[in-house]
Structures are given as C-alpha cells and as structure tokens.
Amino acid sequence: MTLPSYIWHLRGKNQEGPTVVVLGGTHGDELTGLEVVRKLLARFDLLKKPAGIFDRDDIVGNLYVGFGNPEAILRCTRSASDGKNTDLNRAFTPDELNSAPQSDDRADLRRARELAPLLASANFLFDIHGTSSPSEPFVCFGNDTPARRNIYRLIPVRYILTVQHHIYIEGELGTTDEHVARHGGMGLCYEAGQAREVEKMDAILGNTVDLLHAVHAVNPAFMERFAATPRTPAVTTQEVFTIVEKAVAKSDIFTYEPGMDHGWKMVEPNTLMGHFDDGTEERTRRGGMLLFAQAPYRIKKGEGFYYLAEKIG
Description:
Layout: E1 7-24, H1 31-43, E2 53-67, H2 70-75, H3 94-98, H4 107-121, E3 124-131, E4 138-141, H5 146-152, E5 159-162, H6 176-182, E6 186-194, H7 201-214, H8 220-225, E7 239-248, E8 254-256, E9 265-267, E10 272-276, E11 281-283, E12 288-291, E13 304-311
Parallel strand pairs: 1-2, 1-3, 3-6, 4-5, 5-7
Antiparallel strand pairs: 4-6, 7-13, 8-10, 9-12, 10-11, 12-13
C-alpha cells in the first residue's frame, strides 16, 4: 500500500496492535479536526516534518494521522471541487472508487481513491468533523452495530446519530466510516461541535487520545504525553437517533428564525424555521430533533439544509 500524501504513519515497534486512522479536514472548512490533527502531530514534533513513516516505541500496531482533503483545506472550503456532488465524504462508494479514472475526475474523487486502500486496511477510523451552525458534539455513522456501540459509549457525548434510512445521504453510503465498515473495520465520524469553536479543541484532542488508548493502539508512555490535556466531562446517559426527514432549500438565500439554526433542538410539527428571500415561510412538516442546520453561506437551492431525527434508543 502506498502511503497517501499528507498522512503520517506512526509505526509501532510493537506490532501486536490495531491499525488506526485519525483524520481531520475531510471537509476543508471544518477547523476542529484540522487543529486536533495539528496538535497531535506537534506533540510528536512531526507537524513540520514531511509526511512519511516514523518508528515509535509508544505506538502499538500502526497509527496513521493526517489530513483528509488537503486541496479543500487550502481553499478553506467544504470540498476541493466546485458544483454538486463534490464531497469527499460521499465519494467512497464502490461504483465511484472502482470506476476507471478519467482526466476530468473531480479532485474529491481523486483523493478518495488515494485514501481508499488505507481506510480499507483500518481496524478503526476516527474522522473528526464539525458542524457549520451551533451544535453540541455528537457521534455520527451509517448503521448501529455492537462494535460501534462499544466505542461510542467511550466518547463523552449525549447524542449518537445513525443514518440508517439513507435520507441524509442519498443512495449508497459513501462516507469514510462506511468504507471502513465494508472492509471489516469500525469507523465513526466525531462531530466535535461547531467547526470554528477553537476553545473546545484541546478537550477533543484529549478525547481522541483516550479513544486510541481504549482500542489498545498506544501504551502508557504515549498517554503520559497527554496527561495534562483536558477532556470533556463524562456523560451519564446517551441517546441514539436516526434521521427521518430532509428539508430541501427552495433558494440559496434563507434567514432563520432566532435559535432555529441550532443542532439538537426539539421542534414541533409546523414550527416556523425562517423565510426564503421571496418571503416564503419554511415550516417543519413533522416534529423531531433538529440537526445539521446549514449556515446561510452553505445553503444551496435544491439541496438539504436541515434535517429531523427521531429517537431509536
């Protein structure tokens, strides 16, 4: 397997451990994941070194740390390509990955093909994301499984989100975590709050380090490096939700009613969400938990701009 660009391979001298991938910047405008990866690399004096292979005494197995979508990061945009269907975190479908490369393939698909062998080899993937509008942290993935349950119970978040009805992601799931799952590993997207909430990044780093310890990818010497790193306080209960409805934008321009752009807000049927530029009201068609309300600059006509979820566990 060729090491993808912008991925650092921390190879344990003790190989009796898992293969774990930690990604930030799968979406280039989500700063939380970027900063967590930068802080993790900086702690090992690797941030200013070219990506490559580094043998380490404090890693058990193989730890890969890096940036999901470098071109999008440079652009500070969600994707590296313009237009519809240009999301790296939707490009990991078998049909897309196995199609013959073309000279005009979008940049996000080229990057997906570069990352795909590494992700297919992973026992665990922790892909760190952030939401464009205010939201408390949560964990997101396709379908709930016992293996995922054992991991997300270790993460101090109140809410777990599944996308089992394929409403949020139409067609076959092409996310990083589902690509890992198709090849026998366990992946999840850690939505670490609003993408630009920098004050939470140290705690998210601490939570990520604890995950590495929980899956036996690091030894005590590794953990000692992060002993003073803050962690998010533990939660007493977790609730599992699944997305049941997607609201499609009628225009690129939308103004939310106060507070209606906040994630994990329970709404009733016929709740006024806001107005489009022509004055048309947008009201919820059913009740549920409000999620993924897109920031106004991200709203595009004909695409989903908020979602509703219901509790399943």
